[in-house]
Amino acid sequence: MTTASAIAKPEQIRLTRRSPAYWRVTIDIPPINVMGPEMVSQFQEVMSDLETDDDVRVLVFDSAVDDYFLNHSDFTAKLEDLTSMPAGPTGLPPWPDFLVRLTRLPVVSIALIRGRATGNGSEITLACDMSFASREKAILSQWEVGVGMVPGGGPMARLSQLIGRNRALEVLMSSEDIRGDQAEAYGYINRALPDDELDDFVEALATRIGAFDKWAIATTKRLVNTSLPPDVELGAGWDACIASLGRPAAQNGIKALMARGFHKPGDVENRLGYFVSKIHD
Amino acid sequence: MTTASAIAKPEQIRLTRRSPAYWRVTIDIPPINVMGPEMVSQFQEVMSDLETDDDVRVLVFDSAVDDYFLNHSDFTAKLEDLTSMPAGPTGLPPWPDFLVRLTRLPVVSIALIRGRATGNGSEITLACDMSFASREKAILSQWEVGVGMVPGGGPMARLSQLIGRNRALEVLMSSEDIRGDQAEAYGYINRALPDDELDDFVEALATRIGAFDKWAIATTKRLVNTSLPPDVELGAGWDACIASLGRPAAQNGIKALMARGFHKPGDVENRLGYFVSKIHD
Amino acid sequence: MTTASAIAKPEQIRLTRRSPAYWRVTIDIPPINVMGPEMVSQFQEVMSDLETDDDVRVLVFDSAVDDYFLNHSDFTAKLEDLTSMPAGPTGLPPWPDFLVRLTRLPVVSIALIRGRATGNGSEITLACDMSFASREKAILSQWEVGVGMVPGGGPMARLSQLIGRNRALEVLMSSEDIRGDQAEAYGYINRALPDDELDDFVEALATRIGAFDKWAIATTKRLVNTSLPPDVELGAGWDACIASLGRPAAQNGIKALMARGFHKPGDVENRLGYFVSKIHD
After folding, report:
1. Of A148, A164, A244, the CB nearest to C162
2. Residue A7 above 60 pLDDT?
3. Mean pLDDT value across chain C
4. Residue C195 in contact with residue C134, Cβ under 8 Å?
5. Which of A14, A44, A281, C142 has its CA 20 to 30 A from that of B59?
């Protein structure tokens, strides 16, 4: 029924074609789904597949790791491994390149969020066309300001349009964890659903859209995309993020979180919104 | 108390002046309020009346047909009858011409929605300044993508600003029926009201605004209108719609719906969101 | 713990430094917190302090007057006292100058709303980065159109982006009082909170943000600010407001409200939304 095509190198994301029209990308780096340079590169590769395929109409992102959709970056990786990667086809560095291409894809993209969607996980949500989240188990956040960083994947450019400037600034400046209900009330996601209904809901919607005409999907989406912020804004956000990582505030912030147990399963990852404040006590 | 002025030719919409300041346009083509070239022309005529009247402050759109506010286009009409109509004063074809002029009118426009507002009905809602809908009886939808079409009245340009890109794309790509409560939660309409309170609510609001100063209304609205998408985007959407109608996907989609009972009272019109998916089984 | 720095002249607003990072501005002109030229000037002065301070990260606006956050303008003041004030550093007249500078400040601003936030009070809310309001005691409104005026502090430019064009036009054209729950449902404010939880909530949030890195706050906010409407739109709104004040409609409207008890504690101020309609009976 479905075919799985492995991606080269240690597989961090898994592309599954449920049908020629309906693909899934499953994020799978236990135990906490952090994102490093290799994953970014694999995301870019999937975009190339999607951009050139004639049949695919819908793409769903989900996770194979309990409690995490897609998490913050891997702070144990060397920053140079990320910053030395070549620009993508958009002329932007790899992470904003991937996000921009995802947004402009002639394919409908859906984030199925169960567990933590922090930093990169929130940014991929904002780049997707739609998002549906577990009412009980989803946590969204842009935690960066709380630890002295600037977010690197463009929530500054996207959140105001989506949820209003006031709530966008609350999300960014408070750096708090946001539960499914609150995310739905703010319009950060399309809907929060009871956890045991979420998979069926997304499956039905993706299957439905997968049967529609590709030209009609692509043409309609292209006309919606006129309201997108300019791609260069995502580049500006990325540059600010990289600049922030070179400053003592961020270096000390990350170090303080690490000392408390960040970057491995446990209380700091579970309650990151609490701990980004706690380190300033 | 009120005077009714008949419009020439078979009357499909009825203009009633409840007072010099407060006008109503009632859509009335039983049994299902589909829109053909003649109705578009009558809508344009009403715009000319409104643009040149010194007293009118508020315009309400409602329907005289049970279960339908304003429905999709009349697919039994010849497409040439629509495409051969001359451009309106904005330089746009008649339907986007009407919608743009409605949006820019120095008059407050309100959609009172009871029953189905699909395609054109949703697009007139998005062009109005406000909309209030029956909680029990309103259904909004942009069903076009589901049947291989692109919407022709600009929801691609308008919905993202109104309800956020993620929910705009859900409405457009799912092509689903959206009930009053959901439409209110998404901000697609101003409010959903209990059906037996809807008329009084709109009447009170229209009467209230009808007593306010016309210059203050028009000047304030003009300053709000800076946030509108460029009018040409509605032209681009219209062109894509017409192009879609010439493709086999749309022709087959419409034909398949017709075979099941589309375009007359009954199950397909009542549950259009279900049937646009069903025809792809 | 905290130091209060008095501002010259009869003190209408009070600046308190709760810490070097966290400042408050408390509005205090009993009995009904109307805004005249002197207050505008004091607001501008505070902006200068904030723009040049290296430590401040967060600013909270609140009120010392029961039942009023910040109210409409002082209609007993001479209009010339306001219109003769010199343009501010942005080149805009003082009130829009203050609002634009507040929005662009490298500091997080929060409106803590208890009581009436009408006209200027709503406009300062829209210029702040976030707002939290008493569920029981907050009333927001842009009442101007109801009395023949155009709002002067830019809600035409800001409200559509925040709450959608349809609800923005409802707020502006209905000129109605909007309670905390409705304001939250529309996204006009971030959240409505039970009155007895409001102060603690804002205190905790301001304290939290006050501990974060100033560069990260300022850089992130600057990137969010790309989505702001052009500053000149606030100038255009101001000009329209001043023009409206010279017209008979507004002069008669204000006079009719005054005759009923406007501008002092009592029924007209408490139910302004009702009385702006009542005067047209």
Report:
1. A164
2. no
3. 95
4. yes
5. C142
Angle between helices A165-174 and C195-210 (to 10 degrees): 60
Residues A165, C223: C-beta atoms closer than 8 Å = no
For B180-237, how does the pLDDT look when each residue is reduced to its tens digit (9 = 90+)? Answer: 999 999 999 999 999 999 999 999 999 999 999 999 999 999 999 999 999 999 999 9
What does pLDDT average to over chain B?
Answer: 95
Is residue A162 within 8 A of residue A93, CB to CB? The reply is no
Average pLDDT for residues B254-279, to the nearest whole number?
97
Phi and psi at residue A117, in whole multiples of 5°? -120, 85
Chain A contact for B237, CB < 8 A? Answer: yes
**Whether A255 contacts chain C with CB within 8 A:** no
Give the gap in angstroms from C-alpha A16 to the nearest C-alpha of chain C.
Answer: 36
Q: With an 8 Å Cβ cutoff, are A224 and B165 in contact? A: yes
Query: pLDDT value at position C188?
Result: 98
For residues A224 and A237, give the distance between their C-alpha atoms in angstroms, rounded to a whole number: 23
Size of interface A-B (CB pairs under 8 A): 105
Q: Return d(Cα A243, Cα A233) in angstroms, integer.
A: 15
Candidate from A129, A216, A219 with C-beta closest to B169: A129
State mean pLDDT over C134-158: 97
Interface partners of C (3+ CB pairs, < 8 Å)? A, B
**Does residue C71 have a pLDDT over 60?**
yes
- For the segment A118-137, the average pLDDT, to the nearest whole number, is 98
User: Among A56-60, C9-13, C107-111, which stretch is predicted with the lowest mean pLDDT?
Assistant: C9-13
Cβ <8 Å between C166 and B217: no
**How far apart are alpha carbons A119 and A257 in whole angstroms?**
15
Q: Which residues contact B200 (CB under 8 A, 6 or more apart)?
A: none
Nearest CA in chain A to C57: A173
Residues C159, C191: contact at Cβ < 8 Å?
Answer: no
Among chain C residues, CA nearest to B159? C164
What is the interface pTM, i.e. ipTM, of the complex? 0.96
| The pLDDT value given to residue B9 | 57
- Is the CB of residue A273 less than 8 Å away from at least one CB of chain C? no
Beta bridge partners of B70: B117
Chain A: give the shortest CA distance to residue B22, in Å. 33
Q: Of chain A residues 211-230, which have a CB less than 8 A from chain B?
A: 211-213, 215-217, 219-221, 223-224, 226-228
The answer to whether residue C214 scores a pLDDT higher than 80 is yes
Rounded-to-integer distance, Cα B231 and Cα A130, Å: 26
Chain A closest CA to B35's CA: distance in Å?
22
pLDDT per residue as tens digits for the range A70-120: 999 999 999 999 999 999 999 999 999 999 999 999 999 999 999 999 999
Q: Which residues, other chains included, contact C10 with Cβ-Cβ below 8 Å and sequence gap of 6+?
A: C38
How far apart CA A87 and CA C279 sit, in angstroms, is 64
C272 touches chain B (CB under 8 A): no
For an interface test with B, which of A223, A225, A228 has the most B Cβ atoms less than 10 Å from its Cβ? A223
**Cβ-count burial A131-153 (b if 16+ within 10 Å, e if not):** bbbbbebbbbbbbbbbbbbbbbb
